[in-house]
Amino acid sequence: MNKQSAAYYEINNNIAEVYLNRPEQINAFNVQMRDDLYDIFSAIHVDTNLKGVIIFGNGNRGFCSGADLTEFGTTPSRVIAREARYLRDVWSLIRSLNIPTLSALHGFTIGSGLEMALCCDTRIAALNTEFKLPEVALAMLPFATGSQTLPRTIGRSRALELLLTSRWFSATEALNIGIVNKIVEHQDLRTESFSELNKILEQPTGATILARKAIKRGADTTLINGLKIEKNLSQSHFLAILNQ
Amino acid sequence: MINLMNNKYIQLEQRNRLLITYLNNPSANLITTGLVSELKEICLEIEEGNDIDVMIIGSDKVMDFSQGTSPELKEDLNNRNNKDLIEDILNRYRISQAIGNLKIPVISAIQGKCYGQGLELALATDIRIGSEESVFSMDHVSLNTVPWDGGTQRLPRIIGIPRSLELILTSRQFHSQEALDIGMLHHVVPQKEVLEKANEIAEMILTGGSIASKYAKEVINTGSDMTLDQGILLETDLTMILQTTKDRKEGIDSFIERRPPNYTGE
User: Fold this and answer.
1) Which end of chain B is flanked by fewer CB atoms within 10 Å, N or C?
2) Which residues of chain A are under the pLDDT cut of 70?
3) A158 at the B interface (CB within 8 A)?
4) Is B187 helix (H, G, I), strand (E, B) or coil?
C-alpha cells in the first residue's frame, strides 16, 4: 500500500493515521477504497502497539463525498450483493476496534463519508464542513450502517428528519445536535484532532479500553443487563490492578 | 382516492401525493371520539390506497394545534356501565398508534397550544414544526392522569429519560425554543409560516423516492428497538430490496446525468 492507493495509513507515535486518498473525486468511496480500508483496518486490528486511530480525508474539498455512484449497479444479483456486503465489512472492522477512534472532517462530508465518521468514537469538524445524507433523495437508504449509528448518536427523531429530507446541514448544527464533538478552524483541524485524541490516550489504557467496551456493549441491552456487563468488566479490571 | 368530504372534525386538502389534515374542532381542538374516528379513517385510507406519500397534520387558521382530550372522556368514564371496559372507552379516544403506524412520513405543523394528548399526537408524527408562539405541556399528571396515548414511551425516545421525567412530573409549560433545544421540535418559525415550512419539508421528502422514504422510517424506528447488529442486518436487507426498484435505478441515472429524478414509486 502506498500513496497512490485509494487509502493508506502511517504510524506515528503509536497512532494510526488513515488517509482517504482520492482527492480529485473528493475521496468518493469506491470498491478500491473499500478494499484498501479493509486491509488497513485489518492490519490495525492485529497491531498491538497501536493506541489510537485518526481518519483524515486528503485534499481541500472534503473528507469524503460519499459512495462513488459511477460504480453502482454493476453487481450481478442481489444475492451476490448481499453476500459481498458482509465479506469485506469495513464498517464493522472500524466499530470493533479496541482502541479509541477519531475522524477529522472538513468540506464535503456526505453519505458514506459521514457514515464512516459515525463508526468512530469521536468526530472533530472544520467550520467549513458540509454534511448531507443524500440516499433517500436517490431512492436508496444509507447502507454503511448510518441508518443505525445516526439514531444512536442523535436520537431517532432528529435522524429521521435528516434522512427523509436529505438536506444539507452545517458544522454548527452538527455540533448542536451531537453529531460532532467539536468544531475548529480548518487550518487547526489536524492539530486539534491529535490534541483531542491525545487527551483520551493520556488516560490509563486499560481503563479506557474497558470503559469503551462497557458503553458499547451496554448500549445494546436493558439497563439490568448493562449493569451486569459493567460489573463483570470493572471487577476483572480491579482484579488485574491488584495482581500487578 | 382519499375521500376529502364529509368530515366534521377535520378538513382535508390533497395536493398530488401530499395530504394536509387540519384538526378542526373549534376552538381548542379538543380530541373527541368523533375527531379520533375521522383521523383513524384517514389513516386507513392512506394505508389501503397508494395515493399519498406524505401527510401534514396541522390546525386550521389560527386555532390551537390541540389543547388535549375533550372533557367528554371523563363523562364517558363516569357514565360507564359496569360491563364497559375502561380500556375500550380509552381506545375510542386513542389516536397516536394509528398515526405512528403509518408507513409514510408524517409532519406536524404546530401553532398555538399543544397540550396533553394533543402533544402525544404530535409525538407520534415524524417531523415537528413549531411556531415561535407555540406553548407545550405534558399536563396529564397535574390533571391526575398519566399520559395514556403513547406519551410515556415516545417522549423519552425523542428527548431522553431525564428530560421526559421532568416535563411529565412537573406538567409545566414550555415554549418552542426549549422544545427545539431538547430535540422535540425540528424547526421553529414565525406563526404565519408554520404551514409553509411544513409544506417545504413535505416537498423535500416528495422529491425523494417514496419507497425509500417509507423504508427510512421503518429502518430507523424498527432498528432503534433492536441491537446495533440486528439493525444493521435490517438496513442491509431493506437496501437490497430497494435495489430491485425502478426508482433506485432512476436515482442513480439522474445523479450521473445531472438532472432531477423522475420517480414513479415502483
Assistant:
1) N
2) 1-3, 73-75
3) yes
4) strand
Closest residue in chain A to residue B211, using alpha carbons only: A139
- The verdict on A199 touching B (C-beta cutoff 8 Å) is no
DSSP string, A60-90: SSEEE--B-GGGTT-SS-HHHHHHHHHHT-H
Chain A nearest CA to B112, separation (Å) = 22
- Contact across the interface for B212 and A165, Cβ inside 8 Å: no
Question: Smallest Cβ distance to B126: which of A138, A143, A164?
Answer: A164
Look at residue A79 in the predicted model and tell me its pLDDT: 85
Q: Which residues 126-185 of chain B have a CB within 8 Å of chain A?
A: 126-127, 157-160, 183-184
**Among B213, B223, B242, beta carbon nearest to A164:** B213
Any idea which architecture A7-201 has in CATH? Alpha-Beta Complex (3.90)
Domain boundaries, chain A: 7-201, 205-242
Cis check for the bond before B66: say yes or no (omega within 30 of 0). no
**pLDDT tens string B76-109:** 998 888 777 889 999 999 999 999 999 999 999 9
Nearest-CA distance A179 → chain B (Å):
13
Strands (E), chain B: 10-15, 18-23, 54-59, 106-110, 113-115, 127-131, 135-137, 173-175, 187-189
Q: Pairing state of beta strands A130-132 and A169-170? A: antiparallel
Q: For residue B187, which amino acid is it?
A: H
Q: How far A149 CA sits from the closest chain B CA (Å)?
A: 8
Per-residue pLDDT of B232-259, as tens digits, reads: 999 999 999 999 999 999 999 999 999 9
**Hey, what CATH topology would domain B10-206 get?**
2-enoyl-CoA Hydratase; Chain A, domain 1 (3.90.226)
Q: What are the chain B neighbours of A166 within 8 Å (beta carbons)?
A: 204, 208
Of A78, A149, A158, the CB nearest to B186: A158
How far is residue A74's CA from residue B182's CA, in Å, rounded to a whole number? 43
Q: Domain spans of chain B? A: 10-206, 210-256
Within 10 angstroms of residue A46's Cβ, the number of other Cβ atoms is 7
Helices (H), chain A: 31-46, 78-87, 90-95, 112-118, 146-154, 156-165, 171-177, 189-201, 205-218, 223-242
What's the complex ipTM? 0.91
User: Cα–Cα distance between B242 and B237 in angstroms, integer?
Assistant: 9
Return the ∠ at Cα B242 (arms to A65 and A137), rounded to 5°.
Answer: 45
pTM > 0.90? yes
